[in-house]
Design brief:
about 180 residues; alpha/beta; five-stranded mixed beta sheet; two-stranded antiparallel ribbon; globular
């Protein structure tokens, strides 16, 4: 019986030591995971935001954390600010809402292509954060990221489409006024 008790105590001690070591590793990996930003997971994609974004009126505004940077892309690509601002752009020429999410691989690829070819756009792209623009998504019936809506000067949808990863394909859907 003494041997059985000794073995049981020894196993319990080994189990507790192993459990404590596992807890220590979990805490260590959690703290290192928390130090990562969404930029770190983008593997070389520099299209995530910096400290500010250029608004459609040329003014700078605080950039929402974890969303795409439009600095240097205006007047071809601008961040969504208000419906009125987007409608004012649409009064001047073709304007397309692009509902994108920073975590979406297709959106990331599209943003890379937009960044490379933005001067070829025939419409102004208004970049909308899919994760936060609930009312705008509801208004246009958007249920998935990587969706596009061309609007007129009154905000009426002229065309709605999805899954066009290049500037050339985006332009192929634009209705010219």
């Amino acid at each position: 019986m003494k041997i059985f008790t000794f073995v049981a105590i020894l196993l319990l001690a080994v189990f507790q030591a192993g459990f404590a070591e596992g807890q220590k590793e979990n805490q260590s990996s959690m703290s290192s995971d928390n130090s990562m930003t969404s930029k770190d997971t983008m593997t070389g994609d520099n299209s995530m935001t910096g400290p500010t974004m250029e608004g459609s009126n040329g003014m700078t505004a605080p950039a929402p954390a974890g969303f795409y940077d439009t600095n240097g892309l205006a007047p071809y690509v601008v961040p969504y600010t208000t419906e009125a601002a987007a409608q004012a752009l649409a009064a001047k020429g073709p304007t397309v809402y692009y509902f994108a999410a920073s975590w979406c691989p297709t959106c990331q690829a599209t943003m890379k292509d937009i960044r490379a070819h933005y001067k070829n756009l025939t419409a102004t792209i208004v970049l909308v954060n899919y994760d936060t623009a609930t009312a705008l998504k509801t208004r246009y019936g958007i249920t998935a990221q990587h969706s596009f809506v061309q609007i007129d000067k009154n905000g009426k949808a002229l065309a709605v489409w999805a899954e066009t990863p290049t500037v050339a394909q985006i332009d192929s859907h634009v209705v010219m006024n």
